[in-house]
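Lab notebook, design round three. We kept the backbone fixed and only want residue identities now. Task for the bench partner: fill in a sequence for the structure below.
Input structure tokens:
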């Protein structure tokens, strides 16, 4: 409603941390949002929102064990019993064997107005294992397999998402990297979903899909002035198949210029009545360093799916330590005749008081 005004709000963040054991820490925090009730004409139940919690970060003296455990409680009017989030994880890494296990829960009623909660009402758990071999000679620094299992359940403990991943990674002495991955995926849709995002037919809520996918990835030595990454991926995609090619080329003229171009090609084949599609995304980027205080970044992206060309220019002036002036210009236009869809000019200044 154009006549409604957004209520004014005050925000407060308080935190306290104490070092315990050798390298571990325990912290408590409170984040508070309080809205002006007189301005809140729509009678919203969430005129205030608070999130408080406790976090424990584990780090052993020998750095072999790390982990984290937290409990966060949301407080707002008419909050339900599941207005909390909790998680625990533990990791062991000695350079040869790496093992990680984690569990997290986010209640359906967990609401954090100051921040972003991507998803609520789920349990998530799974291990991640990795082993490295170190050859005594040759061009390979280390190589080995990794195993990952990620499972997401709803609050009734029914599987909603699952990912089983087997990967083999080769790290070379010249800092390049080659990896091959086989993935088994499962998803049960919580809402209607358009697999091509083109406004066509949708997959039904509650429908479930399994698929297999294989990918091959290579990253060259990023220390070189000319370097690149490439990825090829093929396999299932919901009720169809998908083929993807991704690549990025970077070129540096130190210390003044960094030029890169990224390209993504996706081909999606779906059965009737869904429409098969192919998408192309091209994005060149130019970073200029005039001095150690003046920077300019130019980013251009062509998206044939959205029929759009985006141009983004960002100027940065560091006028004082940790203090910056940013001026950002962005423009969206049609690719055929470059007619402007929308554009914006934004200025931002940050200053560090010390």
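Proposed sequence:
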């Amino acid at each position: 409603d154009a006549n409604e005004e957004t209520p004014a709000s005050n925000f407060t963040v308080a935190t306290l941390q104490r070092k315990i054991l050798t390298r571990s820490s325990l912290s408590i925090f409170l984040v508070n949002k309080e809205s002006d009730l007189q301005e809140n004409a729509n009678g919203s139940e969430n005129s205030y929102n608070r999130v408080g919690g406790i976090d424990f970060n584990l780090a052993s003296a020998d750095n072999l064990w790390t982990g984290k455990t937290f409990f966060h409680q949301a407080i707002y009017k008419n909050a339900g019993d599941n207005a909390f989030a909790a998680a625990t994880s533990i990791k062991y890494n000695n350079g040869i064997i790496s093992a990680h296990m984690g569990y997290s829960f986010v209640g359906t009623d967990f609401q954090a107005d100051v921040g972003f909660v991507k998803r609520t009402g789920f349990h998530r758990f799974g291990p991640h294992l990795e082993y490295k071999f170190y050859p005594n000679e040759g061009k390979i620094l280390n190589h080995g397999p990794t195993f990952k299992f990620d499972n997401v359940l709803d609050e009734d403990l029914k599987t909603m998402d699952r990912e089983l991943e087997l990967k083999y990674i080769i790290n070379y002495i010249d800092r390049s990297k080659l990896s091959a991955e086989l993935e088994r995926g499962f998803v049960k849709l919580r809402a209607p979903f358009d697999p091509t995002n083109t406004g066509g037919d949708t997959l039904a809520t509650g429908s479930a899909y399994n698929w297999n996918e294989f990918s091959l990835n290579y990253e060259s030595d990023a220390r070189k002035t000319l370097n690149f990454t490439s990825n090829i991926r093929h396999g299932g995609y919901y009720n169809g198949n998908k083929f993807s090619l991704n690549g990025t080329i970077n070129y540096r003229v130190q210390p003044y210029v960094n030029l890169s171009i990224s390209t993504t090609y996706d081909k999606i084949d779906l059965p009737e009545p869904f429409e098969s599609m192919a998408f192309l995304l091209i994005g060149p980027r130019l970073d200029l360093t005039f001095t150690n205080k003046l920077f300019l970044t130019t980013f251009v992206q062509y998206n044939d799916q959205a029929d759009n060309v985006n141009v983004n220019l960002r100027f940065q002036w560091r006028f004082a330590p940790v203090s910056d002036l940013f001026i950002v210009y962005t423009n969206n236009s049609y690719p055929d005749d470059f007619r402007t869809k929308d554009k914006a000019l934004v200025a931002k200044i940050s200053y560090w008081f010390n």
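Keep this in mind before ordering anything: Confidence is low (pLDDT under 50) at residues 39-44.
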